[in-house]
């Protein structure tokens, strides 16, 4: 009997599907991503302005100090944290091109010595961070302004800090962030944002008893934009008259520039110094007795920032809220003090944690020859700060009665309303 044996054949394997997208799908995905970046990049700032009710020039006339602070926080913590912080560093640096200001710093050794320069920078960051990060009437904001006024008081009484010096310092904290963002960031500031910066700092000037009598339209400004135009024009004229070469200017520049470039690798330092020279501009370079950059440094610096602009504008999603940049802690530590969240060179007031000492950025800092927070280095005060103690070592804990008087006055006079409606002229 024959047996019919049917041989079983193996099933034909199905064609394996490729894990790669087709060219058309790739292009569609890329275009979708670029569109998403653009929508998210531009919508966040516009939505904040609309939420606060600033939709046209007329609405800016009523901008409150409270709203200005909210917009400032948005710009500093989410939209332009790196460039805005750099602009404030440069604003402080620019004031040292005025001999009356630089001479005081040299005489008091607050920025002409290596040991004091880093501490003074940290204290300035703390004070500015406190009154820019919180509501205008928050106790921490009022205390920071009070401490700043108390530290300035002896020098004002001795005529070592003049009203023009104070007004010029205020002016650069308005003009430099606007200039830097408009020049180096992925988009320009809107009129609402410029108005907010000027409005906020006008209120700080009021709290410092700065006189605006020398400004062209003093007392008649209808909004922050008019104030910005006035103080910018005045500052430019002031620089033409008083920003002149002086040895004390050079001494402060020689102390601060190495701090700004501390983490730049040695091979790149010569070019980095030229970039600083480019950013300074011809007038400030002359006043600081700083060498002129090479002819190629200016276009190369421009190209570097242009590449950054393109990458951020078209390829980078906006910074999410959980990555908000804060310079100071929102809450006190277990000792009732406050810690800083970052630092320029030396980690003053920075709390040592496993992450800050052994995290990725800590290793980068170590390899770059920098410092990480260390509880064993007492001069860095890792336990944190109290505003009553911020300032030069000899003023630590001093002037408390005057500081309390300032706090009381600010509680009565400083509000969250519009500084151009019934404010000091």
Number of domains: 2
Task: Assign an overall shape.
Answer: globular
The whole-number mean of residue pLDDT values reads 91
Helix amount, in percent?
55-70%
- Beta-strand segment tally: 0
Number of helices, counting only DSSP H or I runs of 4 residues or more: 16
N- and C-termini, Cα separation? 120 Å
The radius of gyration over CA amounts to: 26 Å
Write the H/E string, N to C. HHHHHHHHHHHHHHHH
Characterize the biggest β-sheet.
none
The low-confidence parts are 1-10, 14-18
Molecular structure report:
This protein is mostly helical. It has two domains: 63-328, no CATH class; 329-391, no CATH class. The protein has helices at residues 23-52, 57-60, 65-79, 81-95, 99-107, 114-133, 139-157, 163-184, 191-207, 224-242, 247-260, 269-288, 297-315, 354-358, 360-367, 400-413. It starts with 22 loop residues before the first helix and ends in a 12-residue tail after the last helix. Mean pLDDT is 91; it is low at 1-10 and 14-18.
